[in-house]
What does this fold into?
Amino acid sequence: MQSSSTSTEIKHYLMISALVDRLRKGGYTEIEADHVVNGVRPGEIIGEDGALTPDVVASKDGRKVYFEVKTEEDLFSPRTEEQIRTFLRYAEETGGEFCLLVPARCCVRVKYLLESLQLPETTVLYI
It folds into this structure.
């Protein structure tokens, strides 16, 4: 039997793979993914508690988009809050965009999370 942690890691990997596939089909270039794609991983971004790495970074029309992928299990962790704030801030500072990718069944929970963080305008994609 798989541990919960292993199951969550597999879900996370599959979500990243699906996102990368959609980005390629959608005309994005310079795709970098935490689960290495063509040997390229995203660079670290400095947050308040140290360096963080977005799950996926891709470019389209000269604009970088920073993606953080969350499973249902890790959506409400303190690390998630720091990642969202750090990547959103960095995207705004660099003229990019931040997007959170979550399972479709987490729609209400994500809305609650972003409202509690006072970030209700954050772009969310559902898979």
Observations:
- The longest strand covers residues 63-69.
- Residues 4-126 form a domain with the Trna Endonuclease; Chain: A, domain 1 fold (CATH 3.40.1350).
